[in-house]
Amino acid sequence: MMKSSRNRKRKLDATILRTATNYLLPLLLMFSLFVLLRGHYLSGGGFVGGLIASIAFVLHSFAYNTKRTLRLFSIPPLMLIPIGLVISFVSSFLPVLLGESFLTGVWFADSVAVIGSVGTALFFDIGVYLVVIGVVLTILFTISETVQ
Amino acid sequence: MLTLIFLTFVLAFAILLLKDFVQTKFVALISLLPFSIFVYFLIYLTKIKDGVTSLVYTSDWVPSLGISLDFKFDGLSVLFGLLISGIGTLVYLYAISYLRGHPLLHRFLCYLTLFMGAMLGVVTSDNLITLFVFWELTSISSFFLIGFNNEEEESRKSAMWAFSITGFGGFFLLSFAIIVGSITGTYSISELLSQSDLLKESPYYILLISFLFIAAFTKSAQFPFHFWLPGAMKAPTPVSAYLHSATMVKAGVFLIARFTPILGGEVYWNNTLLLVGGATMVFGAFHSVFRKDMKGILAYSTISALGVLMFLLGIGTKTAMYAVAVFIVAHALYKATFFLVTGIVDHALHSRDISTIRGLRHQFPILSIVVMVAALSCAGIPFTFGFIGKELIYETGLLLTNQVYAYVLTGALLFTNVFLTASGFLIGIKPFFGSFDKLKRIYHRPDLYLLVPTIVLSLLTIVFGVFPLFIYNELILSTFSALYGAVVELPLKIWHGINTSLLLSGCSIVLGTVVYVIFSKWNNSLAVMDRFNQLSPKVIISFFVEKFRQFAYRYTFMFHSSYLRSYLAVIIVFFIGLVGYKLFSDVPLRVNTTGLSAFRVYELVVFLIAVIAVIFAINTSSRLSAIAATGVVGYCICLIFVFYGAPDLGMTQFAIDTLTTVLFVLVLFKLPPFLRFSDRKLQIRDAIISISFGTLIAIITLQALVSPADKDISRFYADNAYVLAKGKNVVNVILVDFRGFDTLIETIVLSIAAMGVFSMLKYKDDEELEK
């Protein structure tokens, strides 16, 4: 990665990295989702998942450039932050509507295949996942845009 | 009540969305909100009438801390509730016409509604902490109202002063609440009533009442904190009429009145109130007649009236409490009228200078009658409500058993009333009599919205003055019993026969007229006062504020060198000093190496890699390789996490390390070329700092291993992760469930950081682009 950024400076070809990235990006994103979902039973969770997803996009931006990576998003990464916060907050507030106290875990009776039992904790974690992606990408891309 | 206050707040923000609606003529409908609250309180009035009965509604807020949203209806809270909502209704109507066409009218109404909700909360709360919250909300919303003309510097400054002084008092209210809570174990004001002795005998009694006094005196503009009130007159006139005559400034009086049955009756309590209230009423009344600006006169006479109320509470006798209840109503009625009329005059002539305004009687006949009634009520002429108030005030002074006291206190009251009468005449008579200056232009004639509120207030002044029984039975009696703690009948009479208090009333009217004549002729009176400006509390407090600011500036400058390296050094040295001191002075050092497992080969390898990377990072002459080397150290630590069974931590650390390295690389190109910033000396200093820091952390870690830790919490998490939260990964269950609240707040912190970076860099970027 560091090599490539240097290379980009010298306008050297980054074909290998680019080709690899084209496959790695979806793979890493899927992996990040996998880490997110397995979190409740095995190592992983929203925070790590979000970080891995961010790394995937950062890798893409190294292989190409930040503008091109941003084009992959239909909304700016900054918008992921409020979305994530809202999801987290709604999932913590949901139990209040059901007569429980704030942030109590509420679960569906039946568990879903692959994912396991679905409850507010999962949505809470998804919110964290989105916030982390939003935060990391906003900080990194803003800095990299300013630098260029 | 909770629903009502909640609704008020919701509506306040809803008004913000109705930007266009508030410019239409239907906006007057908004005054239905305070009006319906007024009716609501009227209904309660019949429920609590005569007697100490009070209705308490409870609902929990934070039960574990004893904080609840309890609301209490007794005479005192209903009296204030009626004032707030009643005068509120009139002020809304008035403000809509006064600020018609103002582009920010919707904001104004939002602040006003917020203020009303907060104020209703203050007077009905039955929980100390809730009371504090509403108390602060009134300060905050009044900040926005005073600074409403935010393009004028004076206006912003006044808002700051008002906010700093009242906010300063707010801290003391909180401290008071906490001390009361720790002594009695409850925050509920109703429960405190039965714990009065416990509080009075507590060694903290003096401290307690000092805190309460500071809170009340700052809010009610008592000497020496009074100066924010004249400044706050920069607010639009409806705000002055609402906040600075009838409601907010009386919150301090309310607070003292509320706690009189609980903490009052002691020598310190009464004497402090007598001294401060007395000084304020004499000072304010004397100052008011020197002013030429109508609002200035009103500001000082309001300060004086608040002083009178504190003074009466300090006397604390039965008659005094009656006088308080009556005078609150009488003052609110005539003072609000004065303010509203001042607003109309200001609106009409674009001037409030009484030395130039004359003969308005010919232009505004109705208005002159209305303001005349208010002036007469202020002077205490019979058949106005003010007369009854004044009689009671004198009676309070005369009924004191101690002769010396009676003479001194009655004398002070007489002096105050003479000057208050004069200042009332300066507002209510001087601008309206004489011949109208033909050269003056009338900009706006008052419409019905402006006139009706003043007419209503004056009518009430007369109705209550002629038929005092009209409000005696319900309102005055129940307020009195809430203040005094018992029901004692003391009927209000218009005519007491010829006695000393009537004589004193007559005296104050005659002398007041004399003072009025002197000061209405004396055009240069303000200059005399200005000479004493150097000694005024405002100048003295400003001096300290300025010194404090300078100190803060120097202090900040010392630590904010804008070098990352010195920030880090300061933080780490401070940490070493603090933790090191605690560790070596308090904890017996025991390092037990027997329990540690032996080095395994791969651990040794990882350790060696890390050591080599560190040495490389220190000695390299290229930034990029230094960053890469620190990345290697980070990865080594991840591996150690993985070896010792913390895969979650390892994964996260791994990702974070990668991203940090990327971040470094990104900013790398922005940095100046690699130079040797530090000489030998600095390097040695840094080496000492970092080595001691590392050693300290290592010692703490070893120490932690041998300390008997309380395993209850971790065992609880391990046992219940699956049972309660259906998760097998304890770390994640803690993050999203057991300690979910922390995570929620951490995500918010992260978001703020991201927005900070975004706005800082983007803003700078755009600025540079413009250049």
From TrEMBL, chain B:
Protein name: DUF4040 domain-containing protein
Residue span, NADH-Ubiquinone oxidoreductase (complex I) chain 5 N-terminal domain: 64-108
NADH:quinone oxidoreductase/Mrp antiporter transmembrane domain residues: 125-408
GO biological process: monoatomic ion transport
Keyword Secreted: no
Record GO terms (molecular function): antiporter activity
Domain MrpA C-terminal/MbhD span(s) in chain numbering: 608-672
Membrane topology: Multi-pass membrane protein
Domain MrpA C-terminal/MbhE intervals: 684-762
Keywords: Antiport, Cell membrane, Ion transport, Membrane, Transmembrane, Transmembrane helix, Transport
Subcellular localization(s) per the UniProt record: Cell membrane; Membrane
GO cellular component, one term: plasma membrane
Transmembrane segments: 28-45, 75-95, 104-123, 129-148, 160-184, 204-229, 241-260, 272-290, 297-315, 321-345, 366-385, 405-427, 448-472, 492-519, 563-581, 601-619, 626-646, 652-675, 687-706, 743-761
